[in-house]
Amino acid sequence: MPELPEVETIKNELFPLVVGRTITDVAVFSEKTVRQPSLGEFQSGVREQKITGLSRRGKYLIFSLASGKFLILHFKMTGSLLFHPLPADPEKFIRAVFHLDNGQNLYFRDPRKFGVMRLVDDPGFVVGHLGPEPLQPSFTPKLLAELLAKRKAPIKAVLIDQDVIAGIGNMYADEAIFTARIHPLRPANSLSQEEVERLHHAIVEVLTAAISNKGASIENYYRPGGTLGIAHFQFRVAHRGGEPCPNCESPIMRITVRGRGTYFCPCSQKLEQA
DNA sequence: CCCGGAACCTGAAGGC
DNA sequence: TGCCTTCAGGTTCCGG
């Protein structure tokens, strides 16, 4: 499912294909996919607009339009943007199509219809509440310590809270916590300074590696060209319940934290100990 | 403010 | 074989 590394990959690969192009028209097949404004206003606001920029904030993909407005997409769990070849079943799951002035199309594919598109004047209303970008230099161990000190919820729950840090979802939270050898149920504010530093390092390392592998093709993630990412082959615990821990060979466990499947190694990630 | 749980949605997987 | 139930999870909303 698209988290920071996946949306970053989509942005990087889409950028040269769409920036500078004009959207001649948009067709929407699933009305609920357009969250804001009304469907009619969305279509007229996007039509005949030149795309002047493409960026990412957290898990959001942001198109800057010549009108000064912003087209903001969120892929939720199963969304993807396909530029050229469509997967086997062309019509199925395509919720919207953007037609470009060079005759090519951009398809918004989303089997579960959780994905959302918005057209807004000010991106701040959509992304303004997000926490810091974990791959920016300003995301330091000190900042992470300050963010965690305010929260006593399980570290797993706090890491996937977008208002705390932007872009980390279920898979990369499990990978980062495992890499830092911290139990997912540890209260966030109970981490020692050394543990916070380990976690900071793990977050940066896990996300950076996943971007260089073009994202993880769990669920329905495709890169814009229709190919898959390979980051999931490097997963050490995420979605690997029952498999041996790469550190100690004991079977990886799956528990539920805040309603989310959480994979960890009970031997490498102890609950008590500082 | 902080925390946790339900709802949204629908294909996939498991049970009988 | 096939119907039925349950599960998955990012975000938002709601209650304590």
Description:
This protein has 274 residues and is of the alpha+beta class. It has seven helices and eleven strands. The strands form two sheets. The protein has a nine-stranded mixed sheet with strand order 2-9-5-4-3-1-7-8-6. Strands 10-11 form a two-stranded antiparallel sheet. Helix 4 crosses helix 7 and helix 6 crosses helix 7. The two termini are 33 Å apart. The mean pLDDT is 90. The structure holds a DNA duplex (16 and 16 nucleotides).
The helix count comes to: 7
Please give the share of residues in helix. Answer: 25-40%
Order of SSEs: HEEHEEEEEEEHHHHHEE
Mean pLDDT: 90
The N- to C-terminal Cα distance equals: 33 Å
Please summarize the sheet with the most strands.
Answer: 9 strands, mixed
Strand content: 15-25%
- Overall outline: elongated
> How large is the radius of gyration?
20 Å
Low-confidence runs of at least 5 consecutive residues: none
The count of β-strands is 11
Write out the strand line-up for the largest beta sheet, numbering strands in chain order: 2-9-5-4-3-1-7-8-6
What structural class do you assign from the helix and strand content? Answer: alpha+beta
Summary keywords:
nine-stranded mixed beta sheet, 11 strands, DNA-binding, alpha+beta, 274 residues
In short:
The chain is of the alpha+beta class and 274 residues long. The chain is built from 7 helices and 11 strands. It starts with a helix and ends in a 10-residue tail after the last strand.
